[in-house]
Amino acid sequence: MKLNFLKTRTSNQLKKNKAVRKSTDYKKAETVGILFSVEDRKKHDDIKEFIHKLQQDGKKVQVLEFLPEKKENYEFMFDFFTLKDVSFWGKIESAKTLKFSETAFDYLFCLDTKLNPMISYVLARSKSKCRVGKYFENAEQLFEFMIDSHGGTKGLIDGMYKYTQQLN
Q: Within 10 A of 41 (CB to CB), how many other CB atoms are there?
């Protein structure tokens, strides 16, 4: 039931979010957000490698993960939120999640190969200048830049990195 309310809130956020969207020259970008759902150790390691690459490029990186039930939070390295952080009425009550969505990152990378309502809501609330994610049919409102990727998380990360570096 609360996921239905969350979907309604997501739709409302998309309509009322007036954040200024634009793609920044990758070389000039300073802040990067990474948003993803926890799946397995391989995805966790791929994301750590991506973060390291971005930091080597001089980017300040902030990470938020959605931790589904019965999934392991590897190394407890990143801020996270769970379904328990959503009220019955579909309102996210996690201060860290709300702060993350209010941050105007130059780029916000969504590293999920399947969208879920929790991640969609954060994307809809996001004040990021350029939200980058996998191509999902009917999800055009959630992203400014979508990558058509079929290579799992690693392929998605590689595509995002390759194409955002070319933006100027």
A: 11
Residues 6+ apart with CB under 8 A from 19: 104, 126, 127, 128, 129
Does the pTM exceed 0.90?
yes
- Is 2 within 8 Å of 89 (Cβ atoms)? yes
**pLDDT for res 60:** 98
Nearest CA to 44 among 69, 80, 94?
A: 80
C-alpha distance across the termini of the chain, in Å? 44
Angle between helices 41-56 and 152-165 (to 10 degrees): 20
Contacts of 46 (CB under 8 A, 6+ apart): 153, 154, 157
Crossing angle, helix 117-125 and helix 2-16, to 10 degrees?
Answer: 20
Write down the CATH number for the domain with range 2-165.
Answer: 3.40.50
Q: What is the pLDDT of residue 132?
A: 97
- Domain map of the chain by residue range? 2-165
Give the contacts of 103 (CB within 8 A, at least 6 positions apart).
31, 33, 62, 127, 128
